[in-house]
Amino acid sequence: MTQSGKPDSNLEAALGFVRDMSGWVFPSRWDPKRKTHRPLTAWSKENGSTNDPAQVEAWARAWPGCYFCVNLGESGLSVLDVDKKHGIDGMETLQGHAFSGRTCPKTYTVKTPSGGFHFFYDGAGLKNTVGEKGLGQGLDTRGAGGMVPVPGTVIPEKGAYKIVDDTLPVPLPAWIPEIAGAARQKDPGQSSVPVAPPDHPSSLHLAREYLIHDAPEAIQGHGGDAATYEVACHLVRDLGLTVDTAHDLLLNHWNDAKASPPWSFEELRTKLENAKRYGQNPPGAKSPAAAFPPVPDTLDAPGAAGTPQAGKAGESAKKWPFDPLGWEQTLVRPRLFEEPPKPETMLFCNGRPLINKGTVAILAAKGGTGKSYFLLSLAKALAEGGVFGPFEAKKPRPVLYLGGEDSQEELDWRLWEICGKSAPEKMGAVSVSGKTGQLMKLEGQNPVPSVWHDWLRETLRLHPCLEFLIMDPLSRFYGLQENANEHATAFIAMLEGICAEFGLTVMFSHHTPKGDKKDGPSQNLVRGASGFVDGARCVLGMWEMDSSSAKLHNIEDSRNCVLVDTLKSNNTPRFPNWVAFRRTDNGVLEHVPLAYNRMKTLAEVLIPCLEESGKEFSKNELINGGKKPEDTKKIAEALKAKVEDFARSRDMPRVIEYCIERGRLEEIKGGDSRNKRKVLKPKGADAVDWGQNAGEWGESPTIQ
């Protein structure tokens, strides 16, 4: 009964199906956006569907107005779905099969709201297919892992599923699974036994590449359901990923990009559970880890028991983790038969690539400068696909910050000041201060990974979608001699291995030399061995603003301002000028648009000068002098008196453009001659709008 006291026809239909057909059902609602059924339970999992009438009634009370669908696999049924919509009539395709002697016996039949039919057959041995991927246009098949509305259901937004033949389901005609394919049967003796470790790093790498480049699209009405199931089977069966890991990967790399419309959180998980339950291949069957034995963590020492001795013909002195390369692996031409994809950029600055995917980057700064605030703000921008001053992430990137100095309480306080309640969903940050050790150690004179390197790899394995890792600072993770080049090189190489294994970009902070008061954009700003700078692909420096720089850029409080510059960048030219940030009262860094401030200062001098002169000047006259060099020279001198490094030929065009952009100057035709020239006319003071958005001018090289 409904709340109004009227019989609930959908509940009665479900109870009748459970009673008469021993069917298993689950509650659903109609999704008008996707035009599909939206399960209200994880119906493929244990307790997600039922043949218990009491549970059916309980679900009806919990979700008033819901209807029920059939879990075909649990019910032991298959369905031939004959569509009649969008100008396609599946009956015509079915008649074509009949002409070839492939007939369908009389069986339990339901007429769908669109005028098509559901033919029910005994046994769940039918593969789920759509259209031409199975029996042909307008014919879909449903079996184990598939579902249809309960016969007799009425969906207000869609219509009624009317029973037109209540004959008990007959066995499935043999020709249907021969063409459409049999369901992937679960073999308890073999298919459930993993043949590769779950979530192996090599499988994770292949999964990301597959989802981004090779996975099929799932388009509603064009086989989207079957395509999604195919993708799910490849992840949890072929590559041996856990449902949780595969779910994260689908949400981050496939759902928004290739599913139209995207699946809901619950729907994707249901697909993966179905793939895990009904998939054919044993988990990990196509993982590289299934084809090759595991590589030992350490190389066998020459002379150890069971290790071939060097010098013996046909024998190797070591077991190499990375096999020696032959011509087939090194030749360039076979790889470059077409233009290769450009490296993916993780972080931009002023629209230019700064840090590319799979590289190691460094931020060098003195203690107390604000490097942790800088890195946390950068992490926020990466995780939400946003901006931090001139730094920009074009799309959200899952990012993890490991803090080695601050306690969790201090870190959370800083995060609150930066993010408040709106921390990005893809941002992780945790303190490991006093909990973990350093990633490398010395064995004799050789730098080798420590047990904490294994800890980090396991942590990263548990973050399968992670794309950006930040470690703050180096000293808490290093463990080697800071001034030894071979140690620094080994550490960077270790991080590059992490990047390659997990598809990551890694950035760490490092301190500047103690006692060195010569701050500024130099690679000497990075403390210790030059191997750090040599190995990293991008190195940023950060230091406090000095009084002369503050005066140059009209900054009143230099002690609370810091400057950031590129000390090294393999992906883009160096910044045209420093990037500046001001420390607010709570320590958070706020971008200071130096170019904007400089242009605004010059403009506030230029406009009064033009108004006071009472004369007309063209752009060229202000820039080069023209026919009135003495008058324009006075204006240029006034600008230089305000901004010491003002250069007329360089800065005058920019400040004129700046004033025109903001409506304080306009170009008009002036003079009394027949060929009137264009002159600049100041507009009223009430028209001024210098703008407050740093992004309008920022640190763009066009106006530096």
Key descriptive features of the protein:
704 residues; alpha+beta; 9-stranded mixed sheet; 6-stranded mixed sheet; 23 helices; globular; disordered N terminus
- Global mean pLDDT: 82
Unreliable parts: 1-6, 186-190, 293-318, 686-704
Tell me how many strands there are. Answer: 33
Helix content: 25-40%
Largest sheet: 9 strands, mixed
Structural class: alpha+beta
The coarse overall form would be globular
What share of residues are in beta strands?
A: 15-25%
What spatial order of strands do you see in the largest sheet? 23-22-26-27-19-28-29-30-31
Distance between the termini: 74 Å
Helical element count?
23
Give a description of the structure.
With 704 residues, this protein is α+β, with helices and mostly antiparallel strands. It contains 23 helices and 33 strands. It has a 9-stranded mixed sheet. Strands 4, 7, 8, 9, 13 and 14 form a 6-stranded mixed sheet that branches. Strands 2-1-3-10 form a 4-stranded antiparallel sheet. The chain is globular. The termini are far apart.
